[in-house]
Write a structure and sequence with these properties.
about 120 residues; globular; alpha/beta; single chain; 5 strands; Rossmann fold; 5 helices
């Protein structure tokens, strides 16, 4: 069973992400509401893929991604954020993110699903 960690401070966004990916069979979801909780969940749950917001109170997505990579963990990270500026895109890709999608994902569920399927090789 594939494991996906969803990191977002918004319960609505978490629900939308799960709804977008629900039809993929054999997926177990874990949730975290900030970057530090995300790092803790990666250590505990060992996900196969992470979907992460950038802007969260406390420790943000940049913190998560930077510290994840510093620890040597290469799990694929898909950033889903309202902030898709060129500067943000450049920064997250330089930190090792797989891709960056714009929130809300209502119009992009198939794009997110396709990226997750490619990452998980399913």
């Amino acid at each position: 069973m594939a494991k996906i960690l969803l990191i977002d401070d918004s319960k609505t966004s978490i629900k939308n992400l799960i709804d977008s990916l629900r039809e993929l069979a054999g997926i177990e979801f874990f949730e975290a509401k900030n970057g530090q909780e995300g790092l803790d969940s990666v250590a505990k749950n060992k996900p196969d893929c992470v979907v992460c917001d950038l802007n969260m109170p406390g420790t943000d997505g940049y913190f998560f991604l930077e510290n994840l990579r510093k620890s040597g963990n290469a799990v694929p990270v898909i950033i889903v954020s309202a902030d898709v500026s060129d500067a943000s895109r450049s920064r997250v890709l330089s930190l090792g993110a797989h891709s960056l999608l714009k929130k809300p994902i209502f119009g992009l569920p198939s794009e997110l699903k396709n990226i997750v399927k490619a990452v998980l090789k399913i």
